[in-house]
Structure formats: C-alpha cells, structure tokens
Specification:
Helix content is 37%, strand content 16%. It has a seven-stranded parallel β-sheet, sandwiched between helices. The protein has a two-stranded parallel ribbon with strand order 7-9. The longest helix has 22 residues. The protein is globular and about 55 Å long. The chain starts with a strand and ends with a helix. The mean pLDDT is 95.
C-alpha cells in the first residue's frame, strides 16, 4: 500500500480527498493539521500540530517514507520551506494544491498553464488581495526547495471548487437565498462566464496524480469545460428545485454601491483550460446541474441538523 501524508485535510476539498482515498483502500493515510475538525475515519491516522511551528512538525509527524505528500494548506512560501525543512523521512512525490487565482487578468481565454502569473497582490480584492500572489510565490518556493532536495513535485491548480463541506460562500450564497426566500440578485448585463470543478472530481484527479512520473515538475489547471454564468446558475436552481425563480437583475454599479457580496466577479470572466490535465488524467466531469443537485442535498442536510441541534 502507498503511504500518504496529507497536510490539512480536515474540511472541504482536503476532507473529501481523504474520504475518497480511504474508501479506495489503497493507501495508509496520515493527516497533519491543527485538529480543529477531527475526521474520525477508520484507517486514517491524525497528527495534530501547526505547520508554522517547526518543532510541532518534527514531533507530530512520524519519520516514515512517504509515497506522496499532498499539501492542501500552503498559503505562503514559508509554509513550504518550514514543512520540507522539518519533515522527516524520504518524500517520493510532493503535490501542492494551488489555485487558478495565481494568474494575472487576461483577455486571452481560456487561460492555460502558460499564462502570465500575478506580479503582485490584487489590491482591488481587499482582504483577499494577497491570496493568489502568495499562492504563486508558494509554487515558486516549492520548485526551488524540491529541486534542491531532489524531490519530485506537481502543482495542481483547481478552478472554482464546489460541493460537499464547502465553507466558502459560493453555491451557499444561492442556497441561503432559496431557503430564506430572499431575492436572488444577478448582474445585468450578465456577461461573466466561469468554469468549476466538482470536489469529488478534484479528489479523483489527485489520487491519479500520486506517483505519476509524467506529472513530475508540471503544473495543471483542474476544471470542467462547462461554462457557467449567473443566469445559468439560476436556471439550474429552478430545474433542481422545480420552482419558478425570478432573479432580480441589477447593474454591477448598483450591486457594488449596495455592498452586495455576490460570490463571483460581476463583469470578469474566470475561464480556464483543463486540456493539459485531461490528456494525462482523463475524467468525465460531473455536469454542473448534477453537482448543484448533490450540493443542495448536502446543504439541506446540514441545515436540518443545525435546526434540530438548536
């Protein structure tokens, strides 16, 4: 069996990956995180510690040979350096889960892996302005560190992730409006297009990437080719709920003036090419309608549990 170390892995994409890997029964799984959300999955060994603390990495993670380290929570370059400097045992493959947010804005669509990265923080994004740039710097640090240590590495850049355990206000923004019977505001004109990746599809691709020599030293966008817009989201919601929905069109200017926090850009496309990954990791991506149906089921289950607990 493979010996896999997951950094993070306690919620959303990391948790789904651990669940899928455990269900496959092909690996001995170790998870290292701060222990705020225990997994309690049979066969998964949980190690508690803070990745920013060198002594906690050394003390908590056993000195084993790792067929792969899958890192879900490196948000700045020093996260990479501290982990590699203090992780004991040979690493055969380091997989960094990055993001398509590392790319600079471009009018050439879809955005491929060869597109220019950010050259600095995105001040227009406020508190999230450093996210994409720091992820890019983390990728750069990974390349430097792994080359020095002779560790094969792969960078995976998912687009917008949705699905089980999602804590980000993406599909939840629309589900909340439905549950609370609030109007769904969409930008008018609604020209922005996006593509997504279902969280289980992401987990499956990561599993296939482990130990794949053809992926060593490479970066891949991970995304479905299906294009989605704000009107398409409302259309899908109507289809999966059987309800007639009348969204409220509003100009981007008025949306920003009113301080309405819509989950996706109002006028900017976020369209990426997943062709490179599809050649090496072919997969039938979950259709957006089906994924939203599953995501809504999960959302409603959580809402019912919260209501009964309260």
């Amino acid at each position: 069996m493979q010996n896999i170390l997951v950094i993070g892995g306690s919620y959303f994409a990391g948790r789904v990956f651990v669940e899928e890997l455990a269900a496959a029964g092909t690996a001995s799984i170790h998870v290292f995180n701060r222990g705020r959300f225990p997994l309690g999955i049979n066969g998964v060994v949980e190690h508690v510690g803070d990745r920013e603390m060198a002594d906690q990495i050394r003390d908590a993670i056993p000195p084993e040979g790792w067929d792969a380290v899958v890192d879900f929570c490196a948000y700045e370059p020093d996260h990479i350096s501290t982990m590699l400097a203090n992780l004991r045992g040979r690493v055969e493959h380091y997989i960094l889960i990055s993001t398509t947010s590392i790319y600079a804005k471009s009018n050439v669509l879809p955005i491929t892996e060869e597109a220019p990265p950010l050259e600095g923080p995105q001040d227009d994004l406020g508190q999230y302005g450093d996210y994409g740039y720091n992820k890019w710097l983390s990728e750069c640090r990974l390349r430097e560190e792994c080359r020095q240590r002779d560790i094969p590495y792969t960078v995976l850049r998912p687009s917008i992730i949705y699905g089980y355990y999602n804590y980000a206000p993406r599909e939840k923004f629309f589900f909340d409006a439905l549950r609370l019977k609030q109007p769904i505001v969409i930008p008018e004109p609604s020209l922005a297009l996006f593509n997504f990746i279902w969280v289980v599809d992401l987990a499956k691709i990561i599993m296939r990437c482990i130990g794949e020599a053809r992926a060593f030293g490479e970066a891949y966008n991970l995304t479905s080719d299906e294009l989605v817009s704000y009107p398409r989201i409302v259309e899908v919601l109507a289809q999966i709920t059987g309800k007639t929905l009348d969204p409220v069109p509003m100009s981007p200017f008025d949306i920003e003036k009113k301080g309405l926090a819509l989950p996706f850009p109002l006028t900017e496309h976020l369209v990426y090419s997943g062709a490179k990954a599809a050649r090496l990791f072919p997969i039938d991506h979950m259709p957006f309608k089906n994924g939203m149906r599953e995501a809504l089921k999960y959302y409603l289950m959580v809402a019912r549990q919260a209501a009964s607990a309260g």
